[in-house]
Amino acid sequence: MKVKEKRNLILSIVAVLLCCLYLFILESDSVVHSYAITIIERSCIYAVAAVSMNLIIGFTGQFSLGTAGFMCIGAYITGVLTIPVEMRDQIFYLYGMASWLHDIKLPLIVTLILCAVVCAGIAALIGWPVLRLKSDYLAIATLGFSEIIRAIFGWDGLGKITNASYGVSNIPEFKSIFECVIISAVCIVIMILLVNSSYGRAFKAIRDDDVAAEAMGINLFRTKQLSFVVTSAFAGVAGGLLAVYMRSAVTSTFTVALTYNILLMVVLGGIGSISGSILGAFIVTGSQEWLRFLDREYTWSELIPGIGNTGFGAMNVPLLRNGFRMVVFSLLLMLVVLFWNHGLTGSKEITWDRLINGAKKLMRSKKEKAVSEAE
Amino acid sequence: MISYLLQQLLNGLSLGGAYALIAIGYTMVYGILRMINFAHGDEFMMAGYFMIFSLAVFPWYFAIPFVILCTIVLGVVIERIAYKPLRSAPRMSVMISAIGISYLLQNLANYLFTAMPQSYPQIDILKHVYTFGNISVSRVTIIAPVLTIVLTFLLIMLVNHTKLGMAMRACSKDQETARIMGIKVDNIITTTFVIGCGLAAVGSILYFTDRNTVQPYSGSLPGLKCFVAAVIGGIGNIQGAVIGGFIVGICQIVITAMGYSVFSDAFTFALLVLILIFRPSGLFGEKAVQKV
User: Fold this and answer.
1) What is the distance in angstroms between the Cα of A224 and the nearest Cα belonging to chain B?
2) Is the pLDDT of residue A288 over 50?
3) Do residues A330 and A322 lie in contact, with contact meaning Cβ atoms separated by under 8 Å?
4) Residue B215, helix vs strand vs coil
């Protein structure tokens, strides 16, 4: 057993070092690799959001759809507190920024912690009435709450603080890719530690059978509340990071569609698996970029080389048109839900043991195939 | 002042009528399948698009039944593809499937009809404007609440006094026992979707005639609001859903008229939370006994 543990530790360290090396290569020439950098940053941010959503949906079994709302709070807090002081009058030209807020500028880390604290506080307040509801009602109530948040941030009355529907722009970007990746990694590690603690076991007990969990002495309401608060806090951090990544915070980003998008990552990765959610975030974000060609109109000659630009070659490829990418994605979500409802990893985590066993099995089956073919 | 109030009240009744018709779909499906049909709002949006295209081809008296038919087909296909395979799956899977369908319909509409708001065709017979003193009312504003009440009355007669209605009530009480009694549960569920979608199509005609444009996301928020209306009335209760629809519609118009249009949606959800805390079974619902 010891040998295996040692091997896994070494493998993990090597993997982390390789990732760091890759990031260093990207960072050393950030202009050339800017495309890869944006995809990685985006994936990391969504990974935080997806893992936080998985905490409440997958581990606690409470179907909460308030992620976009909390991300909205986080994004606006980060936006308002980090834009350079000298640009504020220009951005808030319509409403004028509130004077008490005008000169407060905080470093990114402090702002993100503030996001987490504020979102946790709001979640605790909302959780008190909302978490008494059962599955479907909880979903609708949290979805509605996320719309309420959006309405409040877009309200003229708060224009002096949030710039209403115009949103906050010119947020300073990440200093380097490491800033984004490390903050995301720290968030995810904290959530992993939580899931593996006694609190995490209480979450899972509630998910599996809430009546039995209560009988075992778990305080149902307080445990659900804790899960909801932590989920919301990290959703807030993810929102803050997203604002920095996009360099702006506008209410129209944080619609229900954003929540659905994150839900797609969680479902695709496997409900109840943290590594699955991270994988899901990377796959969905990455393929949304790579499949961008689906949104463009092509003629056949552009796709298949060697066909002349006349006749068949000049015809447009059917279906490819603006919006087709998202249709493909929603079909993908449906296929996963209907035919493959465990997602990529099921509720199990991806571990070195599983990977190595899988690889061994693959090798063996190939060998057997080769042997049988030879015979 | 009084004429202004009266005008707003009429608008509220008209909107409430459309909401009530959609809320019936939610309440019936929830009553039988115990799931929120998240796609219902988007079926209603699709009905809006169907109307645009069918009115371009047919005169209105053919177009309206055609739209209702198309919406029913859409709803039944969705039920067969996305909900039927998951009958025995955990509730969360069914809910995710419903969300997935809603997402798919929105993206499909976005792809097929572009994100630009399309102008809803004016049906002359509905748009005729009456003027009483300071109040001007289009015919649809008067038709909406009346039609809603007539349709609800017919539906309640169907549910309470026919064999089909008895089978529906049996299914919503206990599907297993209903099946033992020889009721074809799947057919009853399909019938429920047929009724729900048909009413949603009528509701969509009433709703969009007053609003003039359709866009891919114009179904999602009204859909959620109508579910709230169904919850307010007591889920599974048809009269309750209708009254809930009128409450939500009138509240929305009143709040908008007071100048807080930003918060009209927020108010609906606040109402939901209040109802669920103080009367979890809704205004007219039966008290559910929690079994362990």
Assistant:
1) 17
2) yes
3) no
4) coil
| pLDDT band per the 50, 70, 90 thresholds, residue B292 | very low
Q: Do the chains contact at A327 and B108, CB–CB below 8 Å?
A: yes
Q: CA of A230 to nearest chain B CA: how many angstroms apart?
A: 21
Q: Which two tokens stand for residue A32?
A: 């050339």
Q: Rounded to whole angstroms, how far apart are CA atoms B244 and B148?
A: 13
Quote the crossing angle between the two packed helices B163-173 and B2-33, to the nearest 10°.
70
How far apart are alpha carbons B157 and B162 in whole angstroms? 7
Domain extents for chain A? 34-253
Round to whole Å and give the CA distance between B207 and B21. 10
Closest partner residue to A330 among B89, B104, B266, by Cβ?
B104
Pick the CATH number of B2-278 from 3.30.70, 1.20.1050, 1.20.144, 1.10.3470: 1.10.3470
Q: Number of Cβ pairs closer than 8 Å across A and B?
A: 120
More confident residue, A100 or A299: A100
Structure tokens at B46: 């699709």
pLDDT at A313: 65
Question: Who contacts B99 (Cβ-Cβ below 8 Å, separation ≥6)?
Answer: A260, A263, B38
Instruction: Tell whether B210 is within 8 A of chain A (Cβ).
Output: no
Mean pLDDT (chain B) is 86
pTM, full prediction: 0.86
Interface contact B104-A334, CB threshold 8 A: yes
Under an 8 A CB cutoff, do B95 and A135 touch? yes
